[in-house]
Amino acid sequence: MKFFTQLPIDTQMNIERLLHENDLNQNGLIEGHELRNILNILGMNLTEEDFHDAMVQIDTDNNNVLDMEECKEFFALCYLEAQD
């Protein structure tokens, strides 16, 4: 978790809370509909193509499953890029 650990602790906690609250079946994975909901909450209303691209970008181990660590890194990177 190279980016996530660079965030302020309160931001880390906010990202973790957002992910856990939207992991509707509490399986520790973020499924497509759960990710879509998170992105909508954050005001990121993506087209289907952009959403697919985001899914591919987040799934860094290419196993077609978004685990919490991958999601935390993705949202940490988004946060850090927004700070620049």
UniProtKB/TrEMBL annotation:
Source species, domain of life: Eukaryota
Sorted UniProt keywords: Calcium
Listed InterPro entries: EF-hand-dom_pair, EF_Hand_1_Ca_BS, EF_hand_dom
Entry coiled-coil feature ranges: none
SUPFAM superfamilies reported in the protein's UniProt record: EF-hand
Domain EF-hand: 10-45, 46-81
UniProt keyword Calcium, yes or no: yes
One GO MF term: calcium ion binding
Classification via PROSITE patterns: EF_HAND_1, EF_HAND_2
Family annotation (SMART domains): EFh
Gene3D superfamilies: EF-hand (1.10.238.10)
Name assigned to this protein: Polcalcin
Organism of origin: Acrasis kona
